[in-house]
Write a structure and sequence with these properties.
CATH superfamily: Calycin beta-barrel core domain
Order of helices and strands: HEEEEEEEEEE
CATH topology: Lipocalin
CATH class: Mainly Beta
Structural class: mainly beta
CATH architecture: Beta Barrel
Radius of gyration: 20 Å
Strand order of the largest sheet: 1-2-3-4-5-6-7-8-9-10
Shape: globular
Number of domains: 1
Strand content: over 45%
Helix content: under 10%
Largest sheet: 10 strands, antiparallel, barrel
Length: 165
């Protein structure tokens, strides 16, 4: 009887220890990033970070972009915050985004190859957005796209490159 109990406890502990880390696919994003390039007319600079928070129950992304004055428009700064979490019911990753311009975006998240794709949830009214990030080593390529309400195709709003700090 004792041997059966010991074997059962070892099997249970082994199964628990082998449980897949739900954040494994996000690991390449974690850290501090600085934008590369920019500096030309109409281009800005910036950076972002992805960090675990709340005892590794969420990932917090903080981003900023600074744009120079041009064509009579003053220089400005854009800040945003995104919280990535696991949905209680589906256990799938989701995110909610807020920015300094008053936008709120709810994202569903998928992994495609090496890319993380944050896409507006289908039921959301209004414009839809898609953020694709592809980290590779100490670099990341990204694209932010917008699809206006009623349109079928996304249009690139901004493409960016970053390097790990």
């Amino acid at each position: 009887m004792k041997r059966v109990l010991v074997v059962a406890l070892i099997a249970a502990a082994s199964g628990w220890a082998q449980k897949e880390d739900p954040w494994k696919a996000f690991q390449p994003l974690i850290g501090d990033w600085v934008g590369e390039g920019g500096g030309g007319p109409g281009q800005g600079g910036g950076g972002f970070s992805y960090q675990f928070d709340l005892q590794k129950n969420v990932i917090v992304r903080k981003n900023y972009a600074e744009y120079p004055a041009q064509n009579g428009r003053p220089a400005f700064r854009h800040d945003d915050l995104m919280i990535v979490y696991l949905d209680d019911v589906s256990k799938r990753p989701r995110a909610i985004y807020f920015d300094s311009e008053g936008h709120t975006i709810r994202y569903a998240i998928t992994v495609s190859g090496d890319s993380m794709i944050f896409e507006s949830e289908p039921g959301e009214p209004g414009d839809h957005y898609r953020l694709t990030q592809t980290p590779a080593g100490g670099r990341m390529a990204g694209k932010f796209e917008r699809r206006a309400a009623g349109e079928a195709q996304y249009k690139t709003y901004i493409e960016f490159a970053a390097r790990r700090k």
